[in-house]
Design brief:
304 residues; Beta Polymerase, domain 2; Methane Monooxygenase Hydroxylase, Chain G, domain 1; 2 domains; five-stranded mixed beta sheet
């Protein structure tokens, strides 16, 4: 039998179509999950559950859309028996493209056991998470370059979106990693030991290592975003200090002219310069000289 004979892939199937391919012993909750539309982001969480003569799994793939600064999730349900693999793909909300299993299918060989077929599937998902980490790193580099160019609202919004996306990705990645670890540790309740042989478990261990690397990459990305946030906050504080410094210089420059005008504006008769012919020019000269003196001092101190 070829892989296409043993691997049945369905996209948003109806109950009638699905019932022709699932095992007769399938649990009602599993059937309900298989038929439920993908109307959520990072829920339900990934899992692999053994039910005697079949294994039921929920897998999620996080996909980034760089042009839209968006991360969405592709849901893939799995029903594995000794002879067949059934995958149910669900169209994400908003008409986004569903998961494409063709790369995993091309990696399979006709003589592979069903355990190896599932390995190729989860290995493709792990590779996509590694690609996602690389894409997020590029997004963070773009953010770091844009902090000095973008307005503060855009920077804050992008930092918030990245932190939210990475939190949800990690909430998806961690249970997926734990589900793969169940296979590595031979903790899946499955009556056929020939499906997950020692060779298959070793290959699943390689997938587990990739998911660990992806988790470490997400943690590093979160640290980079935190660093970008701290730099942005420091830049905002520094810009505010520059504004306050400018306002202080302006207030200081206006202080002496205000004092001079107030001094000679008093309603006293015996002011020495009151009846002086050059008194008005003297007042303007005093204001101009003191203002230039202050500006020269502030420039020398590099405050302006």
């Amino acid at each position: 039998m070829t892989i296409t004979d043993r691997w049945v892939d369905l996209l948003d199937p109806t109950a009638d179509v699905l019932s022709k391919h699932v095992p007769e012993s399938i649990h009602a909750r599993a059937m309900e999950q298989l038929l439920a539309p993908s109307t959520h982001d990072d829920e339900p969480r990934p899992k692999l559950e053994g039910h005697g003569d079949y294994i039921f799994g929920v897998l999620l793939v996080a996909v980034e859309v760089p042009d839209e600064d968006l991360v969405y999730y592709q849901e893939l349900n799995v029903v594995l028996t000794r002879e067949t693999l059934l995958t149910i793909r669900k169209t994400p909300p908003g008409g986004r493209p569903p998961y494409d299993p063709s790369p995993a299918q091309l990696s399979c060989r006709d003589h592979d056991s069903m355990g190896m077929v599932v390995y190729h599937l989860v290995d493709d998902i792990a590779e996509r998470f590694l690609d996602l980490v690389d894409a997020l790193t590029d997004e963070i580099e773009e953010l770091e370059q844009g902090i000095d160019q973008w307005d503060s609202d855009r920077v804050r919004r992008r930092i918030s979106d990245l932190r939210h996306d990475m939190l949800n990705i990690r909430r998806t990645l961690s249970p997926l990693r734990d589900a793969i670890r169940q296979v590595v540790d031979d903790r899946i309740d499955f009556e056929d030991d020939e499906v997950f042989t020692r060779e298959v478990e070793l290959n699943f261990a390689a997938v587990y290592d990739k998911l660990l690397r992806a988790t470490d990459g997400i943690d590093l990305a979160r640290d980079l975003v935190a660093g970008a946030r701290d730099y942005h906050q420091a830049k905002v504080a520094n810009d505010q200090n520059d504004v306050m410094k400018t306002l202080t210089v302006i207030a200081s420059v206006l202080l002496l002219p205000t004092f001079i005008v107030g001094l000679y504006g008093q309603n006293f008769v015996n002011i020495p310069e009151l009846h002086w012919h050059y008194g008005y020019a003297y007042g303007w000269g005093l204001i101009i000289v003191t203002t230039i003196g202050q500006l020269a001092f502030f420039r020398w101190k590099k405050w302006i």
